[in-house]
Amino acid sequence: MNHISKIFLFLVFIGNLANAQLHDPVSWETSVKKITDSEFELLIAAEIEEGWHLYSQNVPDGGPIPTTITINEEKGQFELIGKPAEGEGHEEFDNVFEMNIKYFEHKTQFVQKIKVLTDEKITITGVLEFMVCDDTNCLPPTEIDLNFELQGKAGDPEIESVVSDDNKGFLQNTTEEVTGIQESASSNIKNEADTQKITGKPKKEKTKGLWTLFILSFFAGFAALLTPCVFPMIPMTVSFFTKQSKNKTVGIRNAILFGISIVFLYVLLGTVVTSIFGADSLNALSTNVWFNIIFFLLLIVFAVSFLGAFEITLPSSWGTKVDSQADKGGLIGIFFMALALAIVSFSCTGPIVGTALVAAAAQGGVAPVISMLGFSLAIALPFSIFAAFPGWMNSLPKSGGWLNTVKVFLGFLELALAFKFLSNADLVLQTHLLEREVFIAIWITIFGALALYLFGKIKLPHDSDLPHISVGRLSMGLIVAAFTIYMIPGLWGAPLKLISGFPPPMHYSESSYGVGYTKLGDAGSGTQKEIPEGAHLGPHDILAFLDYETGVAYAKKVNKPIMIDFTGHACVNCRKMEERVWSDPRVLKVLKNDIVLISLYVDDKRELAEEEKYTSSINGKEVTTIGKKWSEFQINKYKANAQPYYVLIDHNEENLNEYSAYNPDADDYLAWLKEGIGNFEP
Q: What is the dihedral of CA 665, 670, 671, 677, to 10 degrees?
């Protein structure tokens, strides 16, 4: 254990004495802002500690728990105008949930507009439920009471559905302090000890994501460069500049300006897309069902075009007009030459550009601009480089059938990518038409066909005769064939980490072993054991109990130590631990054979039986759900409220070693498991 861990454990011990070690990363304040004599805004401001994230009210189904504001409306006293509004926040794609998730950092505010219907002083109450996370912990869903007091003049009960200009201005500046509070019922509301966390997305990850997008787009541009529409243009264009220029220096300058013009045109395209759709609307669209279905169909069209069924071209009149402008010479002529290249090569570059922009849409913001910058640089660089060193062009391979092979190869990739968009739509709708096994089977078919094509077993319309297979084509065919074979075990539940994030998640699949049975016990034994009563199959077919008492009783029966897993359905880091650490064969063997796992979900919304409901000793509220029960259990017994949180105990429910939390190091986690198990006395 390193020094930082020891210091942290010491602080936890001190916190136990003062009951202050529980995470409480959000403080709330309510106030009232007067708009007119009869219209008011109920303001709910959140101060969020550094590194923590509060989730939006608008989170797609299957994602983390959203912030929910419920105002208790009193007839004859006031009425609500619209729904609670919120600030802009940040929105990013989450690889675990496979969706865009909006969250807030540092501080934010929510606004509910109302109209009073009486001249008397009124009290407005409500409840706010929220969830927060940092990079290592998720806190359980927390509820706080809302309270506002105000007095105005009775207004017309007909509610206008429009937000006032004043309110719009407020929403555009949600991170600023609220001014002009006319009447306040301000109360500093600290969230209670029971809280949970989902996915923390630091700003540095956004920068990292843009760099990744830039690199991928650059390679996409390089792929477009190797198509029959673009590659033959390199020697032709460079020769034109060198021959038409007065000297070599001028030729190099013109070629560089030509490259800059190409970059400008494509970056302009990315800028226009961002400007038209907005910096955030593109990435909001990426989880829209119709958006994904449309792009599925669009990529199918692109793929069929690349495979040789037809060509996608722009109107020939466009090229004619641009060519006439290119003849003028000078800077304007060079620019129009670049535009002519973009138009002439559209049948090859258009599908790739479209795909790159769709990928950028999932990230939002300036991502389309960054994507087009990377793409265009790959296209432009050869023209500038070969203009500076024309002798190098002799080393370029001659144009021929291999260019069409590249185009067909890209067509197969477009076809495979198309089903990712269809999968997104299926996941959002939860139709289960494209479950994990079906998706993987489709990809096996596509890449298997690609391997056969590369081996010369399949011939498409524009292919020339193939007397022999080149070394490069054979090598690529072997790689594709190996990748195809790699995916086959995924039909029977293999994790397929190389393509993680593309197929639907593991839980979105058919049952592999039938109801009530699974592979339990020693690996490779070939035996099947019935699942004990009260247990279920957890991640990686680990036997797990969802009830504490039932799990403890079973552990005593089989004489094994117990691991309590405080987790959450919407806890990203819990899923990361399960996918990246629990899947380690050494760890998995221990979890399957040497302990009894009890997974307690602190965000389980199922109602407790009436006789099991009780009043919380933490906040005095009634505990009505299973999740609240386990959250209280974790707080009361272990003085902690973060997930994931792992505890190894014996049959007397005493700790076998220190707890463990989010730790992506499988070796450390395995050592922790073995330490606790070694301290267990049967």
A: 150
How far apart (Å, rounded) are the C-alpha atoms in residues 579 and 507? 12
- The string of DSSP letters for 320-363 reads HHHHHHHTT-HHHHHHHHHHHHHHHTHHHHHHHHHHHHHHHHTT
**Nearest in space to 270 (alpha carbons), one of 384, 354, 379, 380:** 354
| Range 598-610 burial, b when 16+ CB lie within 10 A, else e | bbbbbbbeeebee
- Can you say whether the dihedral through the CA atoms of 402, 403, 404, 409 is positive or negative? positive
* Centroid of chain to Cα 519: 31
For 339-378, give one letter per residue: b (16+ CB within 10 A) or e.
bbbbbbbbbbbbbbbbbbbbbbbbbbbebbbbbbbbbbbb
Angle between helices 346-361 and 401-429 (to 10 degrees): 30
- On whether the CB atoms of residues 136 and 123 are closer than 8 A, the answer is no
Residue 7 neighbours by CB distance under 10 Å:
10
* pLDDT for 478: 95
pLDDT in tens, 403-437: 678 778 878 888 888 888 788 777 666 677 888 88
Q: Which residues contact 58 (CB under 8 A, 6 or more apart)?
A: 66, 102
The pLDDT value recorded for residue 77 is 87
Q: Note whether 561 and 656 are within 8 A (CB).
A: yes
State phi, psi for 497 to the nearest 5 degrees.
-65, -25
Cβ atoms 399, 228 nearer than 8 A = yes
Mean pLDDT by 10 residues, the chain (682 residues): 39 36 78 89 89 84 80 85 86 68 88 89 89 74 85 69 39 38 35 35 47 80 71 65 64 77 79 60 54 81 78 56 54 71 65 67 67 82 73 62 75 85 74 86 94 89 77 90 93 79 72 45 49 84 91 94 87 78 91 94 85 85 88 87 90 92 89 94 84
Kindly state the tokens that stand for 306.
């690349």
Token code pair at residue 333: 């002529």
Beta-carbon contacts of 276 under 8 Å, excluding residues fewer than 6 positions away, are none
Closest C-alpha among 382, 377, 413 to residue 396: 382
Helix ranges, 45-146 (H)? none
Query: How much is the mean pLDDT over the chain?
Result: 75
Using alpha carbons, select from 544, 536, 605, 598 the residue that is nearest to residue 569.
605
Dist CA 544 CA 534 (whole Å): 9
Residue located via tokens 């419920």: 70
Name, in order, each residue with C-beta under 8 angstroms of 335's C-beta and a sequence gap of 6 or more: 261, 264
Strands 614-615 and 517-518: unpaired
**pTM of the entire structure?**
0.45
Say what the pLDDT of residue 200 is. Answer: 35
**Rounded to an integer, what distance in angstroms lies between the CA atom of residue 230 and that of residue 371?**
19
The contacts of residue 114 (CB under 8 Å, 6+ apart) are 39, 40, 41, 42, 71, 78, 79, 80, 81, 124
How do residues 446-455 score in pLDDT, each as one tens digit? 999 999 999 9
Beta strand spans in 22-76 (E): 26-34, 39-48, 53-55, 68-71
